[in-house]
Inverse folding.
């Protein structure tokens, strides 16, 4: 059997792509469910006649396991709509395997990246949104889709549920320190844009990984990233060799351990986070994505 490959070129990747790990689901409200397959987490919504799934998980096998979990949670209704939280294959790469005929909703920048990327299994969006805020109704469900600006990946859409006082935003603020803040975090505006979500009324935060959080956990996650940003700037002043892993791990780790050392994964990840963040200040970011208007990158060159 040959799986959709994403960008993998090695045949040996088939074993990884085909594996179907268990997917756990939990009901959050009358219509809202969360699904987790190990590290990754997402949401799906029971609509009047079918199911709206956010994201697909990151392999064909995981997408199939997700579809089965949805079927078990909401018997008799199939996934008719998929919302891409952002372009990354580990979240939205395999709609072809999750729900082949579903409508795919995504932000315009995400859609353009998906089109240019041409990854096998990542379906092109069929409904493209633009702007900071889109209130849409799908099959009896009112959704508010928010893209405040460049936070993570391309065309990151957060989903706000006023009725449940719940916010979903994938790969942004985590309830721990278990992410290395790879180049796909757009640090220039990240914390201020994420803090902007606190203006909405919500009590539950669903990240794209790990466990659920709340407003206090979300605020602390913003504080943590901001504190790393501050210490990384101080590292220049102290003439820490900022390109080397061990000195940066030691410098930023020592500065932040007292305040944030209780965060799960702190010791294992603070070095990588520091290396990532310090290069933001060294180099100025990863091009147009780290400016307030990343859409100009693809505005005239990619037509959907
Ligand atoms: Zn991502």
């Amino acid at each position: 059997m040959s799986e959709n490959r994403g960008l993998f070129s090695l045949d040996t990747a088939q074993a990884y792509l085909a594996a179907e790990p268990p997917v756990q689901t939990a009901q959050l409200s009358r219509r809202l469910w969360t699904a987790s397959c190990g590290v990754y987490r997402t949401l799906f919504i029971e609509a009047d006649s079918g199911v709206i799934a956010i994201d697909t998980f990151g392999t064909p096998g995981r997408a199939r396991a997700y579809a089965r979990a949805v079927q078990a949670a909401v018997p008799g209704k199939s996934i008719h709509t998929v919302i891409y939280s952002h372009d990354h294959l580990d979240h939205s790469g395999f709609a072809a395997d999750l729900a082949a005929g579903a409508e795919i909703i995504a932000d315009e920048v995400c859609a353009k990246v998906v089109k240019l990327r041409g990854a096998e299994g990542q379906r092109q969006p069929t409904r493209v949104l633009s702007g900071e805020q889109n209130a849409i109704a799908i099959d009896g469900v009112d959704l508010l889709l928010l893209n405040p600006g460049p936070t993570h990946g391309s065309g990151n859409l957060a989903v706000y549920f006023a009725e449940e006082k719940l916010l979903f935003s994938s790969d942004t603020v985590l309830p721990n320190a278990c992410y290395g803040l790879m180049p796909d975090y757009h640090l220039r505006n990240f914390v201020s844009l994420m803090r902007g979500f606190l203006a909405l009324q919500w009590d539950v935060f669903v990240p794209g990984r790990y466990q659920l959080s709340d407003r206090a956990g979300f605020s602390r996650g913003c504080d943590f990233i901001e504190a790393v940003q501050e210490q990384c700037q101080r590292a220049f002043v102290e003439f820490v060799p900022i390109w080397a892993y061990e000195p940066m791990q030691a410098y930023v780790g020592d500065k932040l351990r007292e305040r944030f050392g209780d965060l799960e994964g702190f010791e294992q990840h603070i070095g990588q986070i520091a290396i990532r963040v310090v290069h933001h200040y060294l180099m100025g970011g990863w091009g147009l994505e780290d400016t307030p208007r990343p859409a100009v990158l693809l505005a005239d060159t990619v037509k959907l």
Remarks:
- Residues 86, 88, 91, 152-153, 171, 184 surround zinc ion (CB under 6 Å).
- The domain at 11-171+199-213 is CATH 3.60.15.10 (Metallo-beta-lactamase; Chain A).
